[in-house]
Write a structure and sequence with these properties.
208 residues; alpha/beta; Rossmann fold
Length: 208
């Protein structure tokens, strides 16, 4: 019996994390795991409504603290409705982003204190943290080339903001190497998937 685990994929926009989730879930199914997937913010009615405010309403200019609290509200609902029930059912959870994104986007890149965000996140999630965070890291030029679609509000914040994002993610990974594993994601898609699976089996040998 493989115990339930909670994995989050994160990284700057254009890192390829969202595209890797489907193949990862298929691979986990092949290992006998039941899997629930979600995205943060989103995956609940309240979360989807908040996501639209945060990412699609270009006419709304939110203060960084207000933005952070909206993400936390969506995440609290996600934990309550999706993540914790799935883990209680013995399922694996694969999430497209989680608390680390707030710490980096509104903290390292946005000017808020990352430790304050971490503390608020502990309240919003009831202390539920991933067992593993896969940080897909790419060069900024590569990520920009991959964003060949209309950009959301955060993606439109410019190159300097994106530089701070990448630096923030790598800084967090350096301080939490057991939790956050960096995946070099500049490689071809299948090779990145192989790297993801190698890290997961290293962390959870019961999947070998």
């Amino acid at each position: 019996m493989i115990p339930p685990r909670f994995i989050a994929l994160d990284g700057i926009d254009g890192s390829g994390k969202s595209s890797q989730i489907g193949p990862l879930i298929d691979w986990l199914h092949g290992r006998g795991c039941r899997v629930t997937s979600c995205r943060d913010p989103g995956s609940t009615p309240a979360g989807d409504a908040i996501r639209a405010i945060l990412l699609d309403r270009h006419d709304l200019h939110l203060a960084p603290t207000a933005e952070m609290f909206l993400y936390m509200a969506a995440r609290a609902q996600l934990v309550q409705e999706v993540i914790r029930p799935a883990l209680d059912r013995g399922e694996w959870v694969v999430s497209d982003r989680y608390l680390l994104a707030n710490i980096v986007y509104q903290g390292h890149a946005g000017g808020l204190d990352p430790e304050v965000i971490r503390a608020v996140g502990g309240v919003a999630t009831g202390g539920l943290m991933p067992d593993l965070v896969l940080l897909l890291d790419v060069d900024l030029a590569v990520s920009a080339a991959r964003l060949d679609r209309p950009l959301d509000k955060l993606e439109n914040r410019g190159d300097e903001y994106r530089r701070r994002l990448r630096a923030g993610y790598l800084a967090e990974a350096a301080t939490q190497p057991d939790l956050i594993r960096v995946i070099e994601a500049d490689a071809p898609f299948d090779e990145v998937g192989d790297r993801i699976r190698a890290v997961i089996t290293d962390r959870f040998p019961e999947l070998r």
